[in-house]
Amino acid sequence: VQLQAFGGGLVQAGGSLRLSCAVSGRTFSRYLLGWFRQAPGKEREFVAGLRWSDSDTYYADSVKGRFTISRDNAKNTVYLQMSSLKPEDTAVYYCAAYYSGSVYLPNSYDNWGQGNQVTVSS
Fold it and tell me: Which one of 39, 61, 104, 113 has the fewest beta carbons within 10 angstroms of its own beta carbon?
């Protein structure tokens, strides 16, 4: 599985931004795609996940109600729509393909896209 992420940038607090992750390769063999983020000096943390078979979704408590993960089957792309952004959402965001273990832990994912910087100004 190959992942290519797009869409980071600078936005004011309260604004919106959408990240995209183009997925290629044996996607049917992957259970779940996830988004993670890592702020300077902090550990990488789970943001959202989407189960490929039925599009069931998972969210971190910190983003519930503000972020939405979705997919476009025709484009083999997973999106992270981020709304009501806060300065604490500032981080490098990564999409990743799940392998095994807890869907909330980075080491359960074995394929990672490149990071995309998201900066939210106050």
Answer: 61
